[in-house]
Amino acid sequence: MDVSVKVCGLRRPEDAREAMSLGADFGGVIAHPASPRYVAPGTEEALLAEIPKGKRVWVAVEPDLEAIEAAFARGFDWVQIHFDPSGDFDPVSVSTRFGASRLWLVPRLANLLDFNEDWVGLAKVILIDGFSKDRMGGTGHRVEGESFAKLQNRHPEQRFSIAGGITPENVGEVLRSSEAAQIDVSSGVESSPGNKDASRLRALFQAVRQAEE
Ligand SMILES: O=C(O)c1ccccc1N[C@@H]1O[C@H](COP(=O)(O)O)[C@@H](O)[C@H]1O
Fold first, then answer.
1. Which domain holds residue 97?
2. pTM for the whole structure
3. Where is the N-(5'phosphoribosyl) anthranilate isomerase (PRAI) domain (predicted)?
4. pLDDT tens digit string along 98-153?
5. In the prediction, which pLDDT does 199 show?
6. CA angle, 109 then 128 then 25, to 5°
7. In sequence order, which residues have a C-beta less than 8 Å from that of residue 207 and are 6 or more positions away?
8. What is the pLDDT of residue 138?
9. 45 CB contacts (<8 Å, ≥6 apart)?
10. Which of ligand 1's atoms lies nearest the C-alpha of 8?
């Protein structure tokens, strides 16, 4: 099976160029100020020049509607929203306003059993990321592959992506256990937070292609 790969947390144009040349399906740009991978809205021009149209994902934590609108206006194709399901953020109103086809949703879940069936269909992709009680994303924490596979099998009509601590070394096992068709990778291909490592990127894509055979 072909696996879609998003390389997230791109900050440097040369990292985006390398990821795209290796076959990344999506490039993610983080708009969360607390992240070491933060790229301020409006300063993404050089980065976007290296990510072809159709592959540009803007990643934010509970953004307001105006910020989402502005990200689309700057040339992003997709908006990936991390949110806390126990808080005030309403994924239904965002999906209604912008349409599910342009959204990726990332509910912050300590336990996949807390997945709310009502989220199915609200977004093109629902991303399952590793949980941390202190952080909203980019945690480096793993998701249990078998639990992800069960969730995907319960909702075959919804595309899911798995994230959290995926590295060149563990991606084969992640793909086997989760049966995921889409993965999201960030800290596992970095030399330091926010800086991608070209050799780790190459190793990641090589391992993915091997797993696809
Ligand atoms: O990377 C961040 O700092 C970040 C901050 C806020 C929201 C999302 C963030 N990153 C997302 O988390 C996944 C997994 O990262 P990792 O591989 O565990 O480091 C990453 O792909 C982004 O989508």
1. 4-212
2. 0.96
3. 5-207
4. 999 999 999 999 999 899 999 999 999 999 999 988 888 878 899 999 999 999 99
5. 98
6. 155
7. 168, 169, 171, 172
8. 79
9. none
10. 21
CATH code, 118: 3.20.20.70
Q: Which amino acid is at 206?
A: Q
Token readout for 55 is 């592959």
Write down the number of H helices and E strands in the chain: 7, 10
Residue nearest to atom 2 of ligand 1 (CA): 138
Q: pLDDT by residue (tens digit) across 172-205?
A: 999 999 999 999 999 999 999 999 999 999 999 9
Pair of tokens at residue 208:
């993915």
* pLDDT score recorded for residue 132: 86
Nearest CA to ligand 1 atom 15: 138
DSSP string for 84-124 = -TTSS--HHHHHHHH-GGGEEEEE--SSGGG--GGGTTSSS
pLDDT at 78 over 90: yes
Q: Which of 8, 76, 195 for mutating ligand 1's site (highest number of atoms within 8 Å of CB)? A: 8
Domains contained in the chain, number: 1
The one-character DSSP state at 56 is E
Question: Which two structure tokens, joined as six digits, stand for 51?
Answer: 């990510």
Pocket of ligand 1 (CB under 6 A): 8-9, 28, 30, 32, 35, 37, 59, 61, 82, 129-130, 136-140, 163-166, 184-188
Q: Candidates 32, 127, 186, 197: which one to mutate for ligand 1, based on the most atoms within 8 Å of Cβ?
A: 186
How many angstroms is it from 186 CA to the middle of ligand 1? Answer: 6
